[in-house]
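Session log. Operator J.P. requested a structure for one protein chain; no other inputs attached. Running the standard single-chain path with token output.
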Amino acid sequence: MSPHDDMGDPHDEPRLAHEHGKLQRVLLIKKLREADPRAGFVTREQFASISKHLLLEPQVPALVAFTLGWRKREVPSLQRRHLDLQTGTLRLDPGKTKNREGQVAYLPGELKAAVAAQVDRVKEMERKAERIIGWLFPHLEGLEGQLDAA
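Structure written below.
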């Protein structure tokens, strides 16, 4: 059922005009097949069940994608500069989204805490590696299959 179902069929108007002698001919216009509803979405309960089987590294990025509705290709490219824990926001740069526009999302409490813990893990990695790591999720390389499951 589409939103247009409530408005009646616009193709009926010419037919009705023809039936009442207001129009000599009616063009036959074939309707396009309506697309199937989008699939692949999960409920919070389903996500919780799935995420507990994930390795630690993809759990937070999967939570980001699920909570914010971001695509799995948008999340791995996030860098720590995209995160502002003071304001509780995470942003995507212009050109990184499907519509090519930038986006700013406010993090709900659970997600903000998970992302803050992720930053702490990255800082610990920096300390051990003795180098700066700019990525928010530096371990995502090679984990695409894990993200597909989420």
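Operator note: DSSP finds five helices and three strands in the chain.
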